[in-house]
Amino acid sequence: KELQATLDVVMNLHFHYVENLWQTFWNSAPPSSDGSTTISNSDDDLERVIPREKLVALCKYEPVRVWMRSCDHILYQALVEILIPDVLRPVPSTLTQAIRNFAKSLEGWLTTAMTSFPQDVVRTKVAVVSAFAQTLRRYTSLNHLAQAARAVLQNTSQINQMLSDLNRVDFANVQEQASWVCQCDESVVQRLEQDFKVTLQQQSSLDQWATWLDNVVSQVLKPHQGSPSFPKAARQFLLKWSFYSSMVIRDLTLRSAASFGSFHLIRLLYDEYMFYLVEHRVAQATGETPIAVMGEFSDLSSMMPSLMEKDASFSDEMSNLGSDADVSSGPAEPAVKRERIEISHPLQEM
């Protein structure tokens, strides 16, 4: 009953009702003091009122907790797909902010509603809600980056400058340094480099870039398809992709590339979109929902402060991208020419 009610209010964007729903469900009134219970003629009322003592006893039973976790994963994944059906398609800024505020409140609402429940039960429920909230924050940030990147990818002069700067990058040196860390096949790296340049030269749209990135993931992970090592291989790919892209950005920075701002924005978007693609591939391979995949290590609570800090600083980073002030420094730190990139509707700090 709780799941259906939550689904209904979120589908109608009545986010604030979720707190009341959880409070009502997890704090159902116990039987009257004289031992009698009120018999209702409504099946809905009978389902809705479960005495707290019985609910606590049910939740202590491990198979019930496993079932609850599975149901929550399915529910919250459905809510993500309702609220953000396409991470690249523009979302109104008011809805984006409402979703982020909703995500910020979820853990507190649930923790407060379940105050009287055993800690292991609370952890089971909050872990899934935490993964749900993190997913909403990531997807809204990814969506915001996508809309900012569209302007860059539609600007012919910026694309030409990016191509010119990219052709001056010493990819042989990048490969030499990265190979010691990543141990990637040199031919694969070279092919990706050439494909990237060709896709950029063709002034591809964001949707065409998304298709290219999706194909990259398919090619790289194809040898691991159906293997128990698939999730690990997928995580390793993300690390290697991020390392290589950071090396290219470093080279552009040292050369004071005029299109550094555009590359930095594109790099942020492509890294985030790769993360999105990989989590969905792992979910498909394991038969889980993406939220279940992302919540796999949610019990490592020590990671959460850094994740929240990263999310809260997103707005500042986006604002810095729009700065047209040059960064001046001494001889050992060459200046970086930052072009102006207009990013409308910056996400506020949560």
Estimate the global geometry from the Cα principal axes.
elongated
Cα Rg: 24 Å
**Beta-strand share of residues:** under 5%
Q: Mean of residue pLDDT? A: 80
Number of strands: 0
Task: Spell out the helices and strands N to C.
Answer: HHHHHHHHHHHHHHHH
User: Which structural class is indicated by helix and strand composition?
Assistant: mainly alpha
Residue share in helix: 55-70%
- Give the termini distance in whole angstroms: 31 Å
Biggest pleated sheet: none
**Number of alpha- plus pi-helical segments:** 16
Which residue ranges are poorly predicted, with pLDDT under 50 across at least 5 consecutive positions?
Answer: 29-43, 299-338
Structure, explained:
- The chain is mainly alpha-helical and 350 residues long.
- The protein has 16 helices and no strands.
